[in-house]
Amino acid sequence: MFGEEHPKTADSCHEVGVTQHSLSDYTAALESKKRALDIRIKLFGEEHPNTADSYHSVGVTQHSLTNYIAALESAMRALDIRIKLFGEQHPKTAESYHSVGATQHSRSDYTAALESKKRAFDMRIKLFGEEHPCLVKNIQRPLTAAMK
């Protein structure tokens, strides 16, 4: 109906990829998400919020496939775009710092992971306050694990 290179086509590919990811079909999810990314790059260019969202989503699936090098590249690309578009104090930028940190942790780069996750945490405190559910969840998880 809209053709291959249309924002709605990209959105549909992305949503299919999200569902495939939820079904743990990571290889198919990556293919769908990359297709969405390619369309968004053609339509919007590299420095666009939707392109950054696609890079982030691709990175999440690459991480699930344990392709940590590619996942870190995708997460870093999303972070770079989001910093340019939104600055250092934005929820999407904090989300990207957290993803970068998670991948650094999986690569056993604990010093860099701590720095990235701390940046995300500090941003979220500034943006949402200390009582926000996203912060409480992140604090409770380590405490619960420590009590076991």
Brief rundown of the structure:
With about 150 residues, this protein is mainly α. It is about 80% helix and about 0% strand.
Fold topology:
Layout: H1 7-22, H2 26-44, H3 49-64, H4 68-86, H5 91-106, H6 110-128, H7 133-147
Helix pairs in contact: 1-2, 2-3, 3-4, 4-5, 5-6
Characterize the structure shown.
This protein has 148 residues and is mainly alpha-helical. It has one domain: Alpha Horseshoe (Serine Threonine Protein Phosphatase 5, Tetratricopeptide repeat). 81% of the residues lie in helices and 0% in strands. It contains 7 helices and no strands. It has helices spanning 7-22, 26-44, 49-64, 68-86, 91-106, 110-128, 133-147. It starts with 6 loop residues before the first helix and ends with a helix.
Helix-residue proportion: over 70%
Percent of residues in β-strands? under 5%
Tell me the name of the CATH homologous superfamily.
Answer: Tetratricopeptide repeat domain
Number of strands: 0
Overall, the morphology is: globular
Under CATH, the topology is which? Answer: Serine Threonine Protein Phosphatase 5, Tetratricopeptide repeat
The gyration radius over C-alpha positions equals 16 Å
User: How would you classify the helix and strand content by structural class?
Assistant: mainly alpha
